[in-house]
Amino acid sequence: MRWRLALLVAAAMTLVLLAFLVPLALLLRGVAADRAVSAATTQAQSLGVLVATADPQSLRLAVEQVNVDARRPVTVYLPDGTVVGPAVGRTPAVSLAARTTTLSVEHADGREVLVVVQGLPEGTAVIRVFVPLADLRKGVARAWLVLALLGVGLLAVGVAVADRLAVMVVRPIRTLATVSDALAGGDLDRRAPAAVGPPEVRAVAAALNQLAARIRDLLQHERERVADLSHRMRTPMTALRLDAEGLRDQAEAARILAHVAALDDAVTTVIEDARRERDLPSCDATAVVAERIRFWTVLAEDQQRPVETDLPAGPLPVAVSAADLAACVDALLGNVFAHTEEGVAVAVTLDPRRVLTVQDAGPGFDPAAGARGVSGAGSTGLGLDIARRTAEAAGGTLTVDRGPLGGARVTVTLSALTEP
After folding, report:
1. Phi-psi map region of 341: left, alpha, beta (phi>0 left; psi -120 to 50 alpha)
2. Contact 120, 80 (CB under 8 A)
3. Cα(238)–Cα(259) distance, rounded to whole angstroms?
4. HAMP domain: from which residue to which, for each copy (predicted)?
5. In terms of C-beta density within 10 A (0-12 exposed, 13-18 middle, 19 or more buried), how is residue 276 classed?
6. Which helix (H) or strand (E) holds 412?
7. How many CB atoms are located within 10 Å of the residue 247 CB?
8. Exposed, middle or buried by CB within 10 Å (0-12, 13-18, 19+), for 75?
9. Where are the alpha helices (DSSP H) in 306-417?
10. Phi and psi torsions of 414, nearest 5°
């Protein structure tokens, strides 16, 4: 925007300067030519007195004295046909002047100034002075150079002033853009200076600050509601724990208590995540995915499901927290176990490009599944939405299609961890 404003001013000033300087340059050229012609006419008129009064010998000496300066040669055509001065043939302009009056004729290499002397006994004499093109344009080049430098200087000053004015407008807008990017990145404490820039920019800054404050309030309110809802789950979990402890089968009780403890940990994580803001979340995707596969493998063995895994040999850092990635893997594998028959194979792949793939050999599901609240099997439709939001929060994507095993294939692309 800054350079566009400067370019606009430069174009406008160029047109104005051309409209002013071009006519002025032509005027200066005309003034220079008129000055040279006027000097030649004065010179010819001064010789006219000698032509009318002096004898031929004195006239010849006077013409020779004038022609010492050969820049403007002078020739006198007497009525009797005598030519005094440089031997220049009688031009049509000389004949015309002898019949009419004083005149000047333009030529390609200069201008011919003709002054008539009337009242001689023999007739009319003509004094011819030729003004070369160099004299007609003497000083014009220097004047044009001065005008060109003046135009360039005025243009530079105008562009500099326009650039300063553009900076006054663009800098506050860039500040607004920086604040907007910070807000989009989660820094809800950033505010735009409301007293900088034109009134319109200040109004936008004030509106942006109000929007940021409103977003922060709404987000804080939502975090508190999530934390409260999660906390309400403590009571039924406590009842479930008491029921599990009352079971006679100690092995079964231990298994259920382990599940209750895992659920309690999950609820605690939700409450902590809802009440704090985390910067640059990260985890080792290989370790998290491997741990969740081990958890689901127990159920897979009970259902006689073949589980194929392909994980990297070393750590694979990704820009997502371990809890979010674990929830994503649980949502994907939970969909497989909930919506396919027992014994249906499942495959989990995590390649070094940070692409997580979960597929099964089931019947597949509606391609529209994955949108929030949309399910192809009568569930809430939130499982794939959790995975999608996890991928998008990490700067990745989620796609759903049919895989080589014949059933559904969900591909989650994560992004690498980058330092600020």
Report:
1. beta
2. no
3. 12
4. 167-220
5. exposed
6. strand 408-413
7. 14
8. buried
9. 322-339, 383-393
10. -105, 170
Query: Mean pLDDT for the chain?
Result: 81
35, two tokens: 């000055």
> For residue range 324-333, what is the model confidence (pLDDT) as tens digits?
888 889 989 9
Coil, helix or strand for 104? strand
Local confidence band at 310 (pLDDT 50, 70, 90 cut-offs): very high
At residue 227's C-alpha, the angle toward residues 226 and 233, to 5°, is 95
Helices and strands per DSSP (H, E), number in the chain: 11, 12
Beta-carbon neighbour count of residue 1 at 10 Å? 10
Taking residues 253-259, report their average pLDDT: 82
C-alpha 216/C-alpha 206 separation (Å) is 15
pLDDT of residue 365: 67
Given a contact cutoff of 8 angstroms between Cβ atoms, the answer to whether 327 and 390 are in contact is yes
Orientation of helix 250-274 relative to helix 199-232, angle to 10°: 160
- The pLDDT score that the predictor gives to residue 374 is 45
Q: Are 130 and 112 in contact (CB under 8 A)?
A: yes
What is the distance between the terminal CA atoms of the chain, rounded to a whole angstrom?
29
> Which DSSP symbol is given to 417?
-
